[in-house]
Structure formats: C-alpha cells, structure tokens
Amino acid sequence: MKVVIAGAGSVGSSIARELLSNNHDILLIDEKPEVVGRSGLKGARWLIGDACELTTLKDAKLEEADVVVSATGDDKVNLVVSLLAKSEFGVGRTVGRVNNPKNDWMFDDSWGVDVAVNTPRLMTALVEEAVEIGDLVRLLTLQTGVSAIVEFTVPHESALIGRTLGSIDLPQDCTAVAILRDDAPITPSPDDVVEAGDELFFVAAIAAEDALRAALSPES
Asked: Which residue, 24, 30, 54, 106, shows the most beta carbons closer than 10 Å to its own?
C-alpha cells in the first residue's frame, strides 16, 4: 500500500516506522531537510517541501496514494492537506491529526478528512484498515498492556455471513463490545446475525489475538 505522510515530526515518524515494519510503501513530506537524517527511518522515501503547495503534492504523485496522513503539528496544515488530497487528487482515504481539541469539529468530510484522530497508534491502525478488510486490526492497547481493542471488518465472501455472533467460537479472554453496521453502532448480542461489511469490535487479550483471528476467518 502506498501511504503519503505530511509531517515527519515525532508523530509522523512514529506512524511511518510502524507502517514500514509492515512492508508498506511510505513517502514522507517535510519542509526541513534535517529531519531525513534525524528520523532514523530506513526504507522510507522523502520529499522536502511544503505539503500545502499543489506543486509539492504533484511531485509526490498523490493521485497514486492509497492513503494520505496529515500528521503535522499545525491543524491548519493538516486540514489543507486533507482537502487537497480529496478534491485535487481523489485520494481514497485521508487520516488527519487533531492537535487542538477545539478544532475537532472542523475535521470532517467537508474538509476532506475521512478520519480524525490524535493518537499515533490509532492513526496507524486506521491507515492500515483501508486494505486490511478481513484481518484483525488492533486499534488501541489498553493501559495494562495486556489487552487491546481490536476491529474486524467482515469480507463479502466470509463464511461468517449469516451466522449468529453467539455461534462463533471466540477465545475465552475475548469479548464482543460493538457492531458498526451502516455507520450505526449496535450493542452486540449472541442472536445478532453477521452481515457482510459489519465492523466487529472486541476487547481481547493480546495473547489471544491469533486465536481470535482464526475464529473470525473460518474456512468456507
């Protein structure tokens, strides 16, 4: 997956590092040439320039990107980059960093932002979610470091479709906490029937993630 990240500060670099470890194609845009050597990122591509300038985004070939992440420390920049990515380059998914909670209301589709977040780990997960349908995505590690909130988007060819939630053999230390269907949250019950495209959310022990992944991907 091709991901363009605007802003190579601590947040942008953190996101890039994790995405690189998962073998994604990463291009970072930053105005400061010194960040290249300072970042310690191996395998990333770089473009030095102002991400708010159309010429810079054209040089980045933004139209080829699967996801654009606006991760600078300036909310105005993040909004402009997201809007240009959507309106001028037709990027399929944009993830925007919110620095000031007072600006949260602006980070919506009117500014070209698909997802607005302020946690680097969650930003990474939401970037990867664009191509990880059918796989388990860890959204947030809880403070104990033992459990996590994870998400699974049901593929259209999944053998889970038509089954009740209660019929899925979930690991013992895993609990379904929500279903998101057609943008509406549902409190899950054992009798809920799984539909294609459902987003299933669980709280699970990190050690049980592989078992949960296997339970959610049964052979047809």
From this structure: 30
Full-model pTM: 0.60
- Would you say 68 and 81 are in contact if contact means Cβ atoms under 8 Å apart? yes
C-beta separation of 183 from 214 below 8 A: no
Phi, psi dihedrals of residue 43, rounded to the nearest 5°: 100, -10
Q: 2-37 as b/e, with b when 16 or more CB fall inside 10 Å?
A: ebbbbbbeebbbebbbbbbeeebbbbbbbbeeebee
Give per-residue pLDDT as tens, 86-126. 999 999 999 999 888 788 889 988 999 988 876 655 666 66
Q: Exposed, middle or buried: residue 213 (CB in 10 Å: 0-12, 13-18, 19+)?
A: middle
132 phi and psi, to 5 degrees? -105, 25
Beta strands in 31-114 (DSSP E): 45-48, 67-70, 93-97
Structure-derived torsion over alpha carbons of residues 135, 136, 139, 144, reported in degrees to the nearest 10: -160
pLDDT bucket at 185, cuts 50 / 70 / 90:
confident
* Residue 112 DSSP code: T
pLDDT for 116-127, tens place per residue?
876 655 666 666
Report the candidate in 119, 122, 113 with the shortest Cα–Cα distance to residue 101.
119
| Alpha-carbon distances, residue 28 vs 2, 37, 91, 133, 202 (angstroms) | 11, 13, 16, 25, 32
Mean pLDDT rounded to a whole number for the chain: 88
